[in-house]
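Intended use. Records like the one below are meant for learning the mapping from a protein sequence to its folded structure. Do not use them to infer anything beyond what is encoded.
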Amino acid sequence: MILFKLHQEDMLSFYFNRSLRLEDNLMKKYELFIKTTKDNTIKDMINDFKKNNREHIKDLNDKMKSLGIL
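Structure written out for the chain above:
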């Protein structure tokens, strides 16, 4: 049972951290898109995406903290 618990904690940590890395990569791509486009409609849309992305990152960090995942 202890082995299963450790394995489960490792998996949770791996997937939460992977999700954070993916969200971070998206944020970097959004920044690049904003710098390269001149269309304000697209910039507004990307800024909405960035806002959602920041919320995802906050939610992931909050959940990780509540589960004791570093």
